[in-house]
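Predict structure. Chain length: 422.
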Amino acid sequence: MTTRRRSMLGAAVVALAAPSIVRAQAAAAHVVVVGGGFGGATAARYLKQLAPTVQVTLVEPAERFYTCPFSNLYLAGLRTWESLAHGFDGLRRAGVNVVHARAEDVDVARRTLVLSGGEQLRWDRLVLAPGIDLRWNALEGYDEAAADRAPHAWKAGAQTRLLRRQMEAMPDGGLFIMTIPDNPFRCPPGPYERAAMVAHYFKQHKPRSKILLLDAKQNFSKKALFLQGWKALYGNMIEWQGLAQDGQVARVDAIALEVETVFGSRHKASVLNVIPPQKAGLIAHRAGVTDATGWVPVKGENFEARQASGIHVVGDASFAGPMPKSGFAANNQGKLVAAWLAAELMGLPSPEASYANTCYSLIGPGYGISVAGVYRAEAGRVVDVPHSVGISPLDADAAFRDAEARYGASWYAAISRDIWDR
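Prediction complete.
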């Protein structure tokens, strides 16, 4: 158990021995959390643990949550689909009231949340963790209907399974094209790990096939490590074209499985995986906490939305400066918000904001890479802690790469247990 977690649990014990008026205020408080993923489920679980008398309700439409992290390994055939699934019985056992419904609207003035069945939940504090929505038609020709032909698979579920079926049906010697958006978007290393996992599948089953990555950026997370790993494991199977190589896609023809770049180059795919630009999940927009970027600017010390008091936004929907949109970051943010709310509701000093992130990526079995960073709140914003970034060395040996792969698998198992008890 970490020092910070021990101190917050100790604070909860002190609060329970505090004057009755403080206990009564905490007991009367209702915190509603929207979204049962890495950020929301973490916030709900840890708030109930740190402030047992607070009523905590988690609103999540899915009875089983499938994670985007490690879904690339499903595409590769290295994990089963059900290994990505997580239920909510563990949170119920922890005392969280779990409601399977869709959050439809927020009335900030009345502090109510409207659910898909018409019910209204009254909240004293609201935590939003709605993840992402896709910006349909940000790429000309790519709308919801187009995704049925050219899946994005950037929300784990039916789209992920569709992409896998298309890979299985693709003839050997076919071309898999992936389009990659400019920053910011969910999981910055995700497209490049996906390229490696698709290549792993092709190497086993369709060795004459090729992968073309058309990227709206010139640089990306762990670029040198990915390029090195692709070459070492897959030779020339993967070709990456960045912004300077005319890699930015402007138009998509999902019927023909063709894309056109901003400079007019056309590419035809056997399988077309379009990862479009993204924005915060719909309920964040309905709550009025997004800005012109489509994301939610938050206060660095507690992830409270800058546009509305009493609403905290964690995970991919938030814009948190240099912190990436990752499962690790969302989990970290959820714990901080839980600690901050527990302290506020129990009349205790607020915890000092400190954050961390680690992103593991698998290039092939026994070949992992990673990057990590530490962050703090400064003048109301999240900033990098100087000299805190750590990244796998380019000259690492096979044993190091194998250890990184094992660390990544252990991280997924540990964080899944931490959040969902599985």
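Summary: The two ends are 18 Å apart (CA to CA).
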